[in-house]
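New to this. Please check both lines:
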Amino acid sequence: MKRELPDGLDALRSEFSLAEIVRLIERTARWVAPETFRRLPVWYPEHSRRSLFYKANWAEPQLNRNRQTGATIHKHEGNRYANKALTQALGLQSRQRPNWSCCHIWGVDDAAYASTNVIVQDPRFYSCVANMVLLPTPLKAFTDVMPDVKAMLRACAFHLYGWRCDHGELAKIDLDAAAADEAYPRSWPRKAGDPPPPGTMAMTDSSARAADRRLSAIRKDLEKAGPHYPREQVRSVLAYWGLDAL
């Protein structure tokens, strides 16, 4: 007799309702303060998912060597600089967030991971702190594979920051429907001006200074970084966010 299992999400939903799942996120998520987002929307415009790493102030390629074959490849960015942006914007250090994961809110919806995620490969959105939320690591899977959970996170982020990703088809997503879902947490904002969700980390002197230092570093790199620094990309990202005149 052939053995078959139900879809894993169906098995989960038979034990936990959508509202119960979202409640875990509601009670544990950590959000960047809107004031911090407005101070510096995007923290690492020189980086995006799959971008190449350089060393010696952007003068030399950063290579990884395979210990078995000896082959070297140019090192690619994974999620390192998104993590750094979110950590700093929350006023934290990496050691202060064990077993927490940086989760992108806006991205290509593909639970099978078969599509290229062009959103996080776009430097305008990769290190944007309104496009991220910090979650306990086990809960990250819900945001990756459950579209209704991700839709609610997007609605919450939109009403918290007043910003939504305008990349391609994402601009057409109906956020009102997600906020009207009966599982949408009552403590999350449904319109502009509503109180922020629980877990919103107020902007502190530390996070404000971190934003100012990061912007100063970007300006310095535009002038002095090595030949591989993506100046045109950085200028384009800053212009998108209205930071080019600052």
The first helix runs from residue 8 to 13. The chain is about 40% helix and 10% strand. The chain has a mean pLDDT of 92.
